[in-house]
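hey m, so remember when u said the tokens were messed up on ur end? i reran from scratch. heres the input so u can diff it against urs
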Amino acid sequence: MLKNLKSLFIVEDEVEASEQKAEKPTKNKTAKTNSSSGVNIPPPLPSAPRAQAVSGGVDVKIVEKLLQAIEKNNLEGFDYLEYKKSLKALEKMPMDEATKYRSAFATASTMGVTLDKLLDTVKFYTSVLDKEHKEFHTAFKGQFDAKVSGKEREIAQLDATIKEKAEMIKKLTEEITQHQQQISELKIKVEESNTKISKTKNDFELSYQHLKSQFEADITKMNSYLK
């Protein structure tokens, strides 16, 4: 039954042409990024090529899946699908499209089929397709959220983390520079203080020795001259 339905709705040549027209993704140029933080941070890994907009095409497997849903919900009696078969049988007949449609409907009329009934069955099968369409988009949204949106959110979070840590590195680098400057200034002060204190010490020692030597000289002279 599925094979028969495929013959009614799939034209292989059109499918092949549609597949050949599908746009091939082009190479994505990686944009150069410059760090505005002034901090040396590891270079980013090569960017994965972003998905390019591509043209779709009629996919035989997808059409088969949709037709399976139609087949599963096939109505009893002569309906749109049987009418479509009648049109298919007239495909190679030398008559225009309007005549083919009327001829197939004339056959259907002999079985008590009315235009309203045909249209109702078309609407029914359309609703089957619409249900499949809705279910597909529900599944598609789940897949998209899991494999695209979710990953994009993760990328954004990691990018924010990188920027935050880059700012932290920048701040720490600035603090280190300040500390190094402070160390240089303190070393100068230490050297100045050391020189000053050492001079004071030496001055004291020399002054002390100067006075002490006089005291000792006087003691020697007093012992010599006054005894």
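this time it looks ok to me. The two ends are 150 Å apart (CA to CA). if urs says something different then somethings off w ur setup not the seq
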